[in-house]
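User: Predict the structure for this protein chain, please.
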Amino acid sequence: MTDKMKIFAGSSNKPLAEAICKILKIKLGDARITRFADGEISVKISENVRGEDVFVVQSTSSPANDNLMELLIIMDALKRSSANRITAVLPYFGYARQDRKDQPRVPITAKLVANLITRAGASRVLTVDLHAGQLQGFFDIPLDHLYAVNVFVDFLHKLNLPNLTVVSPDVGGIKMARAYAKRLNAQLAIVDKRRIDDTATEVMNIMGEVAGRNVVIVDDIAATAGSLIEAAQAVKNAGALDVYAAVTHPVLCGEAIPRLERSVIKKLLATDTIRIDNVKDNGKIEIISVAPLLAEAIKRIHNEQSISILFESK
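Assistant: Here is the predicted structure, written as structure tokens:
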């Protein structure tokens, strides 16, 4: 299975890449990533990759620009080293929220980043829980879109929460919440909110039954965690019992972690698509690995097998 396949990693999430390699029983590729005195990134691929099927694991999370440039430079190095095929494995695709012109004279940065990844040498892309499904169309190369729903559902089943309601923190997350509710055999509710600015929202109404029920709020990204915390407080005020949250990408910038600690959320479940080292001693945040999911997808891509069974959101 591993014949002619190699996996390399940027510096954004090396532990995840190592976990993937451990599952696939192969050694992580040797790439030396350094920086010049002025901050320029230097990459040297220290092993032969000619004719190899290469996968590069790199989340374009904070610092987003550095990690994106690192990814592009690694792929360019691999392309110039005659790798046969390069798959960009983006557990978290940064800039995904800039996917449309929501006001005059602004860029569509997600499309720009997609173009850069393609021109740098990627033959295909593998990613998890894009912020919007239509982002798949921004790439002119094949893209495999995995969903973390199965990872979370398996964990939530073990909690055995009675009278469960799955809550979407906004109207845009209804499809994701419905997938969770179906798998968990739970009720569905939606928090109707109005966005005031980039960091603040106002809860208007709750559509669905949450009084006297345990609640799981599901979302793809928690950046400042403002929307998540407000939704949790809203359902708690409406009579919910224990409030949990499941978020695929724990961006958690600024004061997000202290705010979560003070919130009514009993437990935040998050995946390791983004490396966060400052939650090891935090009892409120539980990290669940997507390494098995990504490893299986990589194996199937390498063997030219279908991976539809992995990215179907049931």
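The two ends are 28 Å apart (CA to CA).
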